[in-house]
Amino acid sequence: MIGKEEDRMPAISRWLRFGAASLAIGASTGVIPAHATDVVTEWSTIEMPSAPTLKPVTVDPKSTALLLLDFMTENCGQRPRCVAAVPTVKAFHDRTRAASMFLAYTLPGDGKIIDEGIAPREGEVVDQRPGGPDKFLGDDLDQRLKAHGIKTVIICGTSAQGVGLGTGTAAAQRGYYVIYPVDCLLSESVFREAYAAWHMAGGGPPVTVKWVTVTRSDMITFENANK
Predict the structure, then answer these.
(1) pTM over 0.70
(2) Distance in angstroms (rounded) separating the CA atoms of residues 170 and 136
(3) How many Cα atoms sit within 13 Å of 82 on the Cβ side?
(4) Is residue 195 packed enough to be buried (19+ CB in 10 Å), middle (13-18) or exposed (0-12)?
(5) 214 CB contacts (<8 Å, ≥6 apart)?
(6) Are 59 and 225 in contact (CB under 8 A)?
(7) How far is Cα 99 from Cα 136, in angstroms, rounded to an integer?
(8) Distance between CA atoms of 99 and 131, rounded to whole angstroms?
C-alpha cells in the first residue's frame, strides 16, 4: 500500500503544477474559468424571487412598541413614495395610540416631523442625535424599551433598506419580536423596499429573521381591542 501511495505522489504533483499553470495562463490572457463568476456578470440573468407572503399578526399593546423612525421633512419629504404613504402611517399611528401603545421616535439632527398628525407627545421617547440605520447602536433605546416591559417592536420609518433592515435586525438580535409592515417602511425606490422586505421575510440570516413577521399595517390587530 505504501508503495502505491508513493507512486501516486509524482502524478499528484504534476496535476497541481498543471492547475497552477492553467490559472496563471487564464489570468494573463483574461480568460476566466467557466466556474468563476460574480453577481454583476450574472445580473441580467437573475430572476426576481416571489413576493414575500404577508402574515396577519396580533400583538399585545401593553408589551409592544411602535417605533417611528426618521419621518422628517428633510428625508421623507424628498421621497415621493414616503410622502404618499404618510396617510397610511398616520392611520396606523392613530390605531396604536387608541390602544395605548408605547411610542418611540427618532428625528436625527433636530429634524422636523413630516406630519404633525404623527408628532410625538410630551414625555414620549424622542432621539434627535445624528445616527445611522441601527437606532440601538450607541443609544439607550434597548434599556428604555425593556424598562417599559416591551417584548415586541413594530418598525415604521424611512428608509426600508436603512432603518427597516438596520433597526429591525438589531431588535431581533436583542431578543425582540419584530413586526415589519411593508406599507409603513418607505424608500427612494420600490426596489429598495423590495429587497429589504425579502431580506426580512426570510432572505436574511435565519438567526434573526425567524423573529420577524412581515405584514401590512391593516393586517395587525391588537389583543383585547374591544375590552
Answers:
(1) yes
(2) 7
(3) 26
(4) middle
(5) 52, 53, 54, 55, 180, 182, 197, 200, 201
(6) no
(7) 25
(8) 30
The alpha carbon dihedral of 98, 212, 192, 137 has a sign of positive
- The Cα–Cα gap between 102 and 59 comes to 12
What would the grid cell of residue 115 be? 406630519
Which residue is associated with the grid cell 426580512?
A: 200
Distance CA 123, CA 119 (A): 12
Q: Which amino acid is at 149?
A: G
pLDDT, averaged in runs of 10, over the chain (227 residues): 45 46 52 71 92 97 98 96 98 97 94 96 86 92 96 97 97 97 97 97 95 98 77
Cα 2 to Cα 8, 9, 59, 78, 144: the distances in Å are 10, 11, 68, 74, 68
| β-bridge partners, 104 | 67, 125
* Torsion sign (Cα): 72, 77, 82, 85: positive
